[in-house]
Amino acid sequence: MSNYVEMWKELGMDLENHDNLCQVLPTAFGDVFLSQQNRPQGMAFWDMVVAEIHGIRPAELIEAQKQGRKVFGTFCVYVPDEVVIAANGIVTGLCGGSQFWVPGGEKVLPKATCPLIKASVGARLDRTCPFFRIADMYVGETTCDGKKKAWEILGQDVPMHIMDLPQMKRPQDLDKWTAEIAAFAKAVEELTGNKITVESLNEAIRVINEKRKALARVYAARKAANLPISGKDVLLLTQIAFFDDPVRCAQMCNKLADELEQRIKDEVSVFPKGTKRLLVSGTPLAIPNWKLHHIIETSGAAVVCEEMCTGTRYFENLVDETQTTLEGQFRALAERYMKTNCACFTPNTGRIDDIIRYVKEYKADGVIDVNLKFCCLYDTEGYQVEKALKEAGIPVLGLETDYTDADAEQLRTRIGAFVEML
Amino acid sequence: MGSQSYYIGVDIGSTCTKTIVLDTEGQLHKYYTQPTGWSSADTADSVKERLSQEGVSLEDSLCVATGYGRVSVPFANKTVTEITCHARGASWLYGSGDITVIDVGGQDTKIIAIQKSRVVDFMMNDKCSAGTGRFLDVMANSLGVRQAELCELAAQGGGVSISSMCTVFAESEVIGLIGRGEARENIAYAVIDSIVKKVASQARRLINPGAKVCLTGGLCNFAYIHTALERELQTPVLSEKRGQYAGAIGAALLAKEL
Ligand code: SF4
Ligand code: SF4
């Protein structure tokens, strides 16, 4: 990633510190991904993107900014990309998934904050992530308490728009979310200087729906008895989908899906027969958090599905494409997004139904319900999830972890024992 | 095959390594413990030496390694996690049927629910060392006694409790109690009471009605811990001197199935 130094300098990044990150990332990536056997060729695209993760895409974004386009940084799958795209804006995910950024966050946040929030705040304050430097506006949401308060720190020197997310799913909550989307559209119009029209929004809805369908195709390939792709690889491409151009993302995913579907016909599998199939559910795994998948897939099991925001919650459910007024479109968007089952809502029994349905569809032998340390919402919900799964006769293992490697051996033992138990 | 063949189970725990040798009939041939040193690999070497001294030929035998150092046993034919091994070993020691195993080890505590010799559910304590042998070790050091003595003292004490769950804070509480001149028996009592309460609260989540409850792991050699656990759980807890070997026994039984 050396030829981007000038760009990073111009972004005002802390180059010295950033170098440390650049040094460890390739080794980590090599150990986790490139060591896999018989990977689909289509993964080459994502390998290239990660190899230059702070280079290629940031350079594209800066180029677009030079053409007058605006970049919006988001932290939650509830924020509707469509609205930004309709105003010719660009969306990039900003969630931090590395321990590297955590100490920076800990300088200002309480210890008992989830590592995702700590890493995101650390990446901003320490100036070691180009995406945080590039974004013209951050878009927060009122989901968990940790994030709500983090916006106040994050938003000190960057424009911040916060969407007030309902915490229940009654009809009045749907109305409220519709109004929030309309208000967001206004903020986007103001910053970009572009009007959102019925046509532009319909086109944006179509683009994002296509991306969802393409991701869904990749995931569907994992329902096959012969797994044509590892869980790690799918996690990686899902994580990168948050940063990439949506049209290119859909193209690449469709191309990969073609290859995977062919592999299924040819009975090509990346795992030996009889490998146990696990569904992973819980808190998001932001890039480059590959720890859990790596441990699972080197302990004699395969991940066949992620019931996570870096997983099914990202692409399930499409937005209605037939609306002819902005009002109708905002409502259609709200309806789609409110179907996402996040632990920020109460009650959230839909999530349990989703998990049980995925277990059947993806033929999972068991479920690992993981929660990031100090995420009170998913931790508390874990009780209900595990209870319901046990009642349904589905083996489940609850795990709590963070971004450090300190618990890797413990996790390996638990996961190993769980796999032996299946 | 030249000499007699055996099934060997090696359980490299954080503080203590247990070796079990079964003969071809599945009868207990040899068993012994040794401290786990700094390096699991060195420990595995000395296990190997000891086996050859005992006349157990590795070439003719099958071996399963378990415990946290299981990957460092080059002569093992297979590695299996301690959860699975403990379940097998406990069923061998305490009979098949529904069993809940409480295993208090050096660094972690495991609760394993077993039905028909198979693990159906399990839990392990988190990174924290409260409710493990490590906690006992730290507290015994602060009191300047050995673990066994601490347990004997505890049997005669009462009336004091430690409120901190965290080992570090609990240690300063103990030092505070010593400073206030509290009787050693009473402090020892508080230490054991704290471990037992923590272990019992974990165990309660997994104990099925009607299941036999049994104690394995390093702490089952201390009679008072056993008594205190029965009192806290209000149920009989089975324990026996070979309980410490449950993991190694399970490993040897699994070697027999290779
Ligand atoms: S877990 Fe909830 S709050 Fe977090 S990204 Fe997903 S939907 Fe948003
Ligand atoms: S994982 Fe939990 S605590 Fe962390 S940001 Fe998401 S909802 Fe908030």
Describe it.
The complex is a heterodimer of chains A (422) and B (258). Chain A is α/β, with parallel strands linked by helices. In chain A, 53% of the residues lie in helices and 10% in strands. Chain A has one domain (2-421). The radius of gyration of chain A is 20 Å and the shape is globular. Chain B has helices spanning 40-53, 82-94, 133-143, 147-155, 167-179, 184-204, 223-233, 246-256, and strands at 7-12, 16-22, 28-35, 62-66, 78-79, 99-104, 109-115, 118-124, 212-216, 237-238. By secondary structure, chain B is an alpha/beta fold. The mean pLDDT of chain B is 88. The radius of gyration of chain B is 19 Å and the shape is globular. In chain B, helix 3 (133-143) packs parallel to helix 5, helix 3 packs antiparallel against helix 6 (184-204) and helix 6 packs across helix 7 (223-233). The chains are: A alpha/beta (422), B alpha/beta (258). Chains A and B meet through helix 19 of A and helix 2 and strand 8 of B. The structure holds iron/sulfur cluster (2 copies). One iron/sulfur cluster binds next to loops of chain A. Residues 76-78, 143, 284, 309, 340, 342, 344 of chain A line the site of one iron/sulfur cluster.
